[in-house]
Amino acid sequence: MRELIEHLDQGFLPKVKDLEELSRPNPQAAEFAEVEDVSVRSQSSQVLESERFTRDLCGKLGRYLNGIQDGVTRALNEK
Asked: How far apart are CA 77 and CA 38, in angstroms?
């Protein structure tokens, strides 16, 4: 769980925020900077790769939690 939280806080969410800032320029800025397609594709690719890693961590966490639940159920049934 700690690994997932750390990844979300330090990896996934910052990448999503960077993509959002790249794709939504600040309308209050004096001058809009042109954003190249390659920059958006590159940042999108990083977000998607991070999302795949997030899914893998969630699956791993789910397996651990299921194992814990099975162990607790067995322990309670033995009493």
From this structure: 58
Mean of pLDDT values over 38-43: 91
CA–CA distance, 28 with 6 (Å, rounded to integer):
33
Q: Determine the Cα–Cα distance for residues 49 and 18; give it in Å rounded to an integer.
A: 14
Give the separation between CA 53 and CA 55, rounded to whole angstroms. 5
- Identify residue 75 by its one-letter amino acid code: A
> Which residue is listed with tokens 């910052």?
14
Question: For 28, phi and psi rounded to 5 degrees?
Answer: -90, -5
pTM exceeding the 0.90 threshold for the entire prediction:
no
